[in-house]
UniProtKB/TrEMBL annotation:
Gene3D superfamilies linked to this entry: Periplasmic binding protein-like II
TM region positions: none
Keyword Transcription regulation: yes
Organism (species): Saccharopolyspora mangrovi
Domain LysR substrate-binding: residue ranges: 40-244
Record protein name field: LysR substrate-binding domain-containing protein
One Pfam family here: LysR_substrate
Length: 246
């Protein structure tokens, strides 16, 4: 049975059989840890993966929690596209991931932390800002700015086209702060899920509900399917469920 494939310049990747074997092996090691009393998570490294646009919400909470309750645990932070995070988690390099439900691979088990819906972010003086609710078609006549991280960019444009809108995407950036700053200056609207009162440079933002049923894209914690969570993973997930904004 082939467990891994070596790809030129891309390193070694597990096959489906390899991922299944890795899951079983990890569970065996966790059981050994429980039997020997070494699964309390009081020392060592906890590696957390986070999709960049949700990192500012999640990472500080985890760092503070573990600094207070498990001061001998070192937190290693990995911020990367969703596919890379999940691949590294399946290879045992990341303990827990935080991303959006539409990004999940089939081998990943999600734990929903907060339901999220797409909203239209605009500047306070944008032509659409006085509307409490907008239709997707209302966006066609105004320039937009999209987060340029896959699959976010593809999914956003697909959503718009599903309602017959060919968007005027004038700006793209891989940084959520940059997108908010562009929106805050009145240069574009954007499709975002996490509401903030202003961009990082202090420009007010408004978040408008979309009239159409565009579906949810909830914030989730993610683990490989079949993996039993460790004590520290359970503690981190429970904490995030308590403190993350609605």
């Amino acid at each position: 049975m082939q467990l891994a494939v070596r790809r030129t310049s891309k390193g070694v990747h597990l096959t489906a059989a390899g991922r299944a074997a890795a899951t079983q092996a990890r569970n065996v090691l966790q059981e050994v840890g429980r039997l020997t009393g070494h699964d309390e998570g009081e020392v060592g490294t906890f590696t957390v993966g986070c999709f960049p646009s949700v990192s500012a919400q999640v990472i500080p909470e985890i760092v503070e929690l573990l600094a207070r309750r498990r001061p001998k645990v070192h937190v290693d932070i990995v911020e990367a596209p969703a596919a890379e995070l999940q691949d590294r988690m399946l290879r045992g390099q990341i303990d827990l991931c935080f991303l959006y439900e539409v990004q999940l691979l089939k081998e990943i088990e999600p734990i929903v932390l907060r339901e999220r819906w797409f909203k239209v972010a605009v500047a306070a003086d944008h032509p659409l800002a006085d509307r409490p609710v907008v239709h997707v078609a209302d966006l066609a006549d105004h320039p937009g700015a999209l987060l340029n991280i896959e699959p976010a960019s593809y999914l956003n444009e697909t959503l718009l086209r599903r309602f017959g809108v060919t968007p005027q995407i004038s700006y793209r950036s891989s940084d959520i702060q940059t997108i908010r700053a562009i929106v805050g200056r009145g240069l574009a609207w954007s499709l975002l899920m996490t509401e903030v009162q202003a961009s990082h440079d202090g420009r007010p933002l408004k978040f408008l509900q979309i009239a159409e049923q565009v579906g949810t894209n909830s914030l989730v914690a993610a683990l490989p399917r079949g993996i039993r969570a460790t004590a520290v993973v359970d503690e981190v997930i429970a904490h995030c469920r308590r403190v993350l904004p609605a």
